[in-house]
Known about the structure:
Elements: H1 3-36, H2 41-73, H3 89-113, H4 122-134, H5 153-169, H6 179-191
Helix pairs in contact: 1-2, 1-3, 2-3, 4-6, 5-6
Amino acid sequence: xxxxxxxxxxxxxxxxxxxxxxxxxxxxxxxxxxxxxxxxxxxxxxxxxxxxxxxxxxxxxxxxxxxxxxxxxxxxxxxxxxxxxxxxxxxxxxxxxxxxxxxxxxxxxxxxxxxxxxxxxxxxxxxxxxxxxxxxxxxxxxxxxxxxxxxxxxxxxxxxxxxxxxxxxxxxxxxxxxxxxxxxxxxxxxxxxxxxxxx
Length: 199
């Protein structure tokens, strides 16, 4: 191997290793988002790992091995600078093709498996319903409540039953309701048309 070939290999090794690190950081950021969103993270991580392995096997490892062999034969070449050295067009095209392919695999994998957490108002609805139920007097059939309008005695009885059902199902910490049960109670209450509309 000539000195010029060695310098080209050394430059290739640095460039492709840097590009590999950048794609790895993108894959790590995507992996963190996929894990946080409780999406299917294992297939994404396998795709990202496959893309990075492809890049390592095709670009980084051959350049490092060739550079290492040349340095074993000519130890004095280690100190040479690659400042004015240019990578050949053929190697540059090959490197860009593999790098872009790896990056696309990571990006496509991210969008295939990333599912953001749904933004629901179920918890807000449960809290409103629970507060509305708490505001109903225990043994009252009056209609003059500020948060509840046009309640009949049957509505008050339904509200009291719902309140008792929530309290019987609630754990010792009353603020941590079982969301599914509370949501079911809220839907039941909405079906009976006792919630105030227009808020």
